Amino acid sequence: MTKTILVVDDSKQSSNFLEHTLANGRYLLKHEDSANKALRRVQNENFDALIIDMFTVAMEGRKLFHALLSRTNFTVPPVILLTLDTQHEGYSNPPWDHKISCITKPLKPTELIWTLEKLMAVTAGEARHKLVNAYP
Known about the structure:
The protein is built from five helices and five strands. The chain is of the alpha/beta class. The longest helix is centred in the last third of the chain and has 11 residues, at 109-119. The two termini are 22 Å apart.
């Protein structure tokens, strides 16, 4: 079953990397280059996960994430925050009940796939099996 993921990143290079890494038929990536556009889009479409660059134009990814959490009658899907900060600014163990993970750039394909599968509730064994098959 194909999973739909919204990528919020204003970097064409990063978006191309994500597209190439996740282009295996299991993921359908949709892109927005600003957090404001993404906020409007998630209100009208369902996504299985979000990948958000912490430093997008117009509204930082951090603000977008908090704006999503503050919405009523809206379930935030699992989120991967892309950051340059190795400390992840406290998002690694969030105080709220939500599936979230941070990945430090530069991105590594295996780390990205592993994290995405883990957040979407695939067991570690299944995720490892998929990684081995995707990157023999």
